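In response to reviewer comment 3 from the previous cycle, which asked for concrete evidence that the modeling workflow produces usable outputs, we include below a single protein chain processed end to end. The sequence was submitted unchanged, and the resulting structure tokens are shown without manual editing.
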Amino acid sequence: MTKSVAALLCAGLVLAACGNVSLSSATKSWITQSGFRQNLPTLTRDVQHSANELHDLHASANDLHTVCAVLDVDSLSANSSLPTPDSQATALLSTAYDDLGAGANTCYNAVSSPHARALALTLLARGMAALSEGTARLHVATGAAP
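The workflow returned the following structure tokens.
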């Protein structure tokens, strides 16, 4: 009986130690596992390509559909890696990915609508601002300089 209690106590201590991961370590691990650093430039380029096509009043429906669909897929993929270990970073990144996805969907249908083009550009700008804030928050959570 004493050996069983000792084994149970040791197992409890091991499990308790596993639960004491710092926010910094957990966030660094999330950044690596999610591919955040590798995906950030791709998502940024997708937004730039979409914005360029939205500004080009002669862009064809196929051009808009292509760049906006790619942005939509990439923003959905990035969103699927949430949550982060940091609730503030999660909220900011979730807002960013939601706005980028909404901008991509609006962009997809904006061929002949100046209003839709302007709305899509606004959503993309808002998404990029939130993405920048979320990235800064991840730097804070990991203890790294921005």
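The chain has a mean pLDDT of 89. We consider this sufficient to address the reviewer's concern, and the full set will be provided in the supplementary archive.
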